[in-house]
Design brief:
The protein is built from two helices and no strands. The protein is an all-alpha fold. The chain is rod-shaped, with a radius of gyration of 20 Å. The mean pLDDT is about 85.
Length: about 90
């Protein structure tokens, strides 16, 4: 049982590090989207038809790592709980 507990903890820490990396990436993409939205509003939004396509593309790029970050964060918490459960048993 002790080996299982240690394995769960190691995996939990590894997944937690990946989760932080995904969160940083998604935060950077959301900031980029916000920057582009603010800059486009200052320059009469919609003047160029490609502006909206670019913003939708950035939005799509921002949503994917956000979902992955949330999933890996939840998975790391599950691993830590499994480690606690294995320790009690």
């Amino acid at each position: 049982m002790a080996a299982d507990t240690e394995q769960f903890r190691r995996d939990g820490h590894r997944v937690e590090k990946w989760s932080i990396g995904w969160m940083v990436l998604s935060l950077a993409l959301w900031v980029w989207l916000g920057y582009r939205l603010l800059m486009d509003n200052d320059q009469e939004f919609g003047r160029h038809p490609d502006d909206s396509h670019t913003l939708v593309g950035i939005l799509a790029l921002a949503v994917i790592p956000t979902i992955i970050a949330a999933a890996t964060a939840v998975y790391s918490r599950v691993l830590f709980r499994l480690a606690r459960q294995a320790k009690r048993s």
